[in-house]
Amino acid sequence: MSANSLDFKIKGGKKLSGKVVTNTSKNGAMGLLAASLLNKGTTILHGIPRIEEVNRICEVLESINVELEWIGEKSLKIKADKIDLSNINYESATKTRTILMFIGSLVHTFDDFKIPNSQGCKLGKRSIAAHQLGLEKLGFKVKTEENHYRIYKAGKATKDLAMFESGDTATENLIIAASGLDQTTTLRYISSNYMVQDVCGFMEKFGVKISGFGTPTVKITGVKEFNQDVEYYNSEDPIEAMMWISAALTTQSELTIQRAPLDFLEVELEHLRLMGAKFKLSKPYLSKNGFTRLVDIEIKPSKLKAIDEKIAARPYPGINPDNLPFFVPICALAKGQSLIHDWMFENRAIYFMELTRLGANFHLGDPHRLFIEGVDSFSPAQVVCPPALRPAMIVLIAMLSAKGESILRNVYSIKRGYEEIAERLNELGAEIEVIEN
What we know:
Layout (H helix, E strand, L loop, with lengths): L5 E7 L4 E5 L4 H10 L6 E5 L5 H12 L3 E5 L3 E5 L10 H4 L8 H5 L5 E5 L12 H9 L2 E5 L3 E6 L6 E3 L5 H12 L4 E5 L5 H11 L4 E3 L5 E5 L8 E4 L4 H13 L3 E8 L4 H9 L3 E4 L3 E2 L6 E8 L10 E2 L14 H6 L4 E5 L6 H5 L8 E6 L2 E5 L8 E3 L4 H13 L2 E6 L2 H4 L5 H7 L4 E5 L1
Helix pairs in contact: 1-7, 5-6, 6-7, 8-12
């Protein structure tokens, strides 16, 4: 069944109930798959979601002679000791920005090589400056050419590097690259977000020493050779947990979200508490990676109100940029006026306006600021899925709340990042029919 040909027919107004387990993270998997290219031994990664984004990366890996074998449902065995870039799958590579993170590994295999330009979600211009400037300081030049990047060795690596911008994928790229250098490298002003911490945990399996783990400054003592048999567990996805929180609050449901990564949701939960959201947290416990703190979050039906302060994303430990969209359907039903400030992307707030088709009262102040007047309810509608993962998902959430029948067309954007989402929602009481055209 082709993901490009799928629609969702949603009979909205149903309450969700029960318990749902947070899946392991898409973004964590992307960094781990890229980092696995360092290892000439056998890597087994557990908790790799079976989603379209992973499918595209697996297609790229197989095209460069990496051996892949799925073990059970979500464990992937990887052997990357004979990488050959001559037949790299351009079509699959250009559909995801993860291809950029291949650079940090491949610089330790090739002195001069090319990879395809990256794309991913259509969120406006997405600069690779943080990748280019950081890698250059580590001795590797990244040159943008017509339909690819050319990467080659071009100098001596610095031992103390301040990042141009604390982006998640750029930080992962530099950590991977620094882990293969025969020196101790200090990286400053980095992201310490969840996927970055997983890459650090994975690198430590090979004997890389990383001090400052989980902070904006890390010292990385690299190793000369990655040739070990290693297993690693990907951690749970805070963005999926936030999606379930948003779905529960928007549909006025009672829902328990299990295995939610607390350290990457606390700021979001504090904002929701001020909005009147009712929830209860369990005692924290650890993920299988040994360091990510998890909790179970019990959401109750809540009377929601707008808050005076704007709701805006920041690099970790602020509201995660990928979590910000999930405030939109919540604010759409909250009493009063809310301001969502999505400063990071040029186009994403425009996609939020799709909720007006379902009766939301929004005013777009500029491409980044969305003023929201709360309404009593959503109305059913037909909407074509926006070409970006999180905006597409919030349209689905609004449709779950809208009493009546809605159609969400061409749901590939959702299937890029959410595994069996219709089936999982239906198990909780939703009514979604998957239609193949």
